[in-house]
Amino acid sequence: MSPTARRAGWVGCNFALNRIPTDARIPVVTESRISPAAEVREKFKRVKPLKDISVTQRGWTLDVLNAIRCLNKTEFSTADAYAFTRDLEKLHPDNRHVKDKIRQQLQVLRDAGLLLHIDRNCWRIDSK
User: Each residue of 41-54: pLDDT tens digit?
Assistant: First the structure.
């Protein structure tokens, strides 16, 4: 492309839609049915705290949230989350303290209102 082309300097990006947690997938139209605006706003309000997490940390947060969703449980233990250590090591090969990071991200998700810490090493997905 020539330097004077209309799109010169444009930088695109790819979204890995399969890595977006189900919590952040907010359907506006499903099977030709428009979702009520109040419902869309409520779902958006629920994930809005994630925007306050720095971009560099948000990847970790969403990866841990995805892992927890794979458990298909509403309550889980920290040990259940640790079961995804190998998967997260592959996604974040530069991190040598993955279990510590998982524990930290559980707290970040708690602070964002997506998880409830119900007891030592026991968590619940907040289904507000």
Answer: 998 998 898 888 88
